[in-house]
Design a protein that fits this description.
The protein has about 425 residues and is of the alpha+beta class. It has three helices and 23 strands. Strand 13 and strand 14 form a beta hairpin. Helix 2 runs antiparallel to helix 3. It is rod-shaped. The chain starts with a helix and ends with a strand. The relative contact order is 0.19.
Length: about 425
C-alpha cells in the first residue's frame, strides 16, 4: 500500500469515530420528558333551565265546516218568474225579509177576488135565512091565535048544539076550520124546524168560503219567496221568465255567520275536559284554516256532545259552533269569512293543569328519562309524562324549577359522567 492511500484510510476512520462519539454524547445529554397525569374536564354540553307552568289542556282535532242552517228553496205555487233580487246569485248576500224572486201573482189575485165574492154570497144566504126565521116566528104567532079562535068557535057551537040552538052542519064546519088552522100551524112549525139544519149548512158554506179566502191569500203570498234570515246564496237554479211548477227547486241559501264543525275526539282525550262539558257556555275553541299562506283564525265554542260513540273509529263526535259578524254588523271580506266546505283545525281548550314542565320531545330519552347537569356531573333522571304532543311533552313529576336539562346529544350517557356547560350560557326555556 502506498503511503498516500494509508493516510486517507486513517483520516476516514478518525472521522467515523468522532461522529460516533458526538452521537453518543448527544444521546446522553438529551433532556428527559417529565411524566404527566392526563386529566379530563368533561363533555361540553348546552342546557336549558326548566320552569313550571299552569297550562290549559288543548285537544286538537279536524273537521269540515257546514252551515248551521241551510234551506233548499222551492216554489209553492206554479207560475212564471217575473222579478228577481239582484243579489240572488251564487255568493250573493241577502238580508232577512228581502224578496228573492216573484212569481206572476195575477191568477192568485183573481182567486182572492173570487173568494171574497163567495164569502159575500154565503153571508147573504145566511142573512136571508135569518129573515125567514123571523117571518116564520111572526106567522107562528098568528097561526096559534087562529087555532085558539077556531077551538073557541067549536066549543061555542057544541054548547049551542047541546041546547038544540044550531045545526050539526054548522058544528061540522067549525070542526073543519079548527083542523085547517091546526094544519097551518103544523106546516109553519115544520118549516121552522128545517131552518136549523139550513142554518148549519149555510154557516158551513160561509166558513168554507172564508177558508178559500185564506187559501187564496196564502197562495198570493207564496208568489214571493223571501229569506227568513240574513243569508248567503249557495245555489241559484232559476232565471227570470222561467215557468215554475209546484215543488220545483229555485236555489239554496244558508244563514250568514252561523257554522257548525263536527269533530271526533279520541276517548282518551276526554280526560282533559272538565266535568261540566255540556254546560250552555261551552269550552272555548280556536278554529284555524291552514291551507293558505297566512292561516286564518276564528273563535268558537264546544256546543254539544253527540249521544253515540262512532262505531268505526271509537271516537266521540262533538259539535263546534262558530259565529262571526255578518256584513250588516261589520265589513267582512270574502277572504276572511268562514265558508262551508273548509277543512279546518280546531283546538279545544280543556281544563287547567298546574305545575307541569314542557320540554321538547327530543329531550326525552329511553325509559322516559332526561339528562340533567349539576355540579359538573350528569344525572339521568326518570320523569312522569303527563301528555305527549308531536313536538313536545308535558312532565308532571320528576323535574323542579331551575333544573338544567342537557340539550346536547350524548352517547353512552350515565349518571356521574363529567360535563361542562358551554360558554354560551344557560338558555331559558321558552313556551
Amino acid at each position: 500500500m502506498k503511503k498516500g492511500a494509508l493516510f486517507k484510510t486513517v483520516r476516514v476512520v478518525v472521522v467515523l469515530l468522532l461522529a460516533v462519539a458526538i452521537a453518543v454524547a448527544l444521546v446522553q445529554l438529551r433532556p428527559r420528558a417529565e411524566k404527566q397525569v392526563r386529566t379530563s374536564d368533561g363533555r361540553l354540553v348546552e342546557v336549558i333551565r326548566t320552569r313550571s307552568q299552569t297550562l290549559p289542556m288543548i285537544v286538537e282535532a279536524y273537521g269540515t265546516v257546514v252551515p248551521r242552517e241551510s234551506l233548499k228553496l222551492v216554489a209553492e205555487v206554479r207560475g212564471q218568474v217575473v222579478a228577481m233580487h239582484p243579489a240572488f246569485i251564487e255568493g250573493g248576500f241577502v238580508k232577512s225579509g228581502e224578496v228573492l224572486l216573484t212569481i206572476d201573482p195575477r191568477d192568485y189575485e183573481l182567486a182572492v177576488r173570487r173568494a171574497k165574492v163567495g164569502i159575500r154570497q154565503a153571508q147573504a144566504e145566511l142573512d136571508r135565512l135569518a129573515q125567514d126565521i123571523l117571518n116564520l116566528d111572526a106567522s107562528l104567532k098568528l097561526a096559534r091565535l087562529d087555532v085558539d079562535l077556531a077551538l073557541a068557535e067549536v066549543k061555542r057551537f057544541k054548547h049551542l048544539a047541546g041546547k038544540n040552538m044550531t045545526s050539526q052542519s054548522v058544528l061540522d064546519k067549525a070542526d073543519r076550520q079548527l083542523l085547517t088552522s091546526r094544519e097551518g100551524l103544523q106546516a109553519l112549525e115544520n118549516q121552522l124546524a128545517v131552518t136549523a139544519p139550513n142554518r148549519i149548512r149555510l154557516e158551513s158554506q160561509l166558513e168554507m168560503a172564508r177558508v178559500g179566502m185564506e187559501q187564496a191569500i196564502l197562495d198570493l203570498e207564496r208568489c214571493q219567496i223571501d229569506t227568513p234570515f240574513d243569508a248567503w246564496v249557495m245555489q241559484k237554479a232559476v232565471e227570470t221568465g222561467q215557468h215554475l211548477a209546484v215543488g220545483q227547486s229555485v236555489g239554496r241559501i244558508y244563514r250568514a255567520g252561523a257554522f257548525d264543525i263536527e269533530v271526533k275526539i279520541p276517548m282518551g282525550d276526554l280526560a282533559w275536559f272538565p266535568d261540566d262539558l255540556g254546560s250552555e257556555q261551552g269550552l272555548p275553541v280556536e278554529v284555524l284554516f291552514m291551507e293558505i299562506a297566512t292561516p286564518k283564525l276564528w273563535h268558537g265554542r264546544l256546543a254539544r256532545v253527540k249521544a253515540a260513540v262512532d262505531q268505526t273509529t271509537r271516537t266521540l263526535p262533538v259539535v263546534i259552533e262558530v259565529t262571526e259578524p255578518t256584513p250588516e254588523d261589520s265589513v267582512v271580506h270574502a277572504a276572511d269569512r268562514l265558508k262551508p266546505g273548509m277543512f279546518v283545525t280546531v283546538r279545544i281548550q280543556g281544563r287547567q293543569v298546574e305545575h307541569v314542565h314542557r320540554l321538547p320531545r327530543h329531550l326525552i330519552h329511553d325509559g322516559d328519562t332526561v339528562y340533567l347537569a349539576a355540579d359538573d356531573q350528569l344525572t339521568v333522571r326518570p320523569v312522569t309524562i303527563l301528555r305527549r304532543f308531536k313536538k313536545s311533552v308535558l312532565i308532571s313529576d320528576g323535574l323542579s324549577d331551575g333544573d338544567l336539562v342537557v340539550t346536547t346529544p350524548l352517547s353512552g350517557a350515565v349518571t356521574g359522567m363529567r360535563v361542562r356547560i358551554a360558554d354560551s350560557g344557560i338558555e331559558e326555556l321558552r313556551d
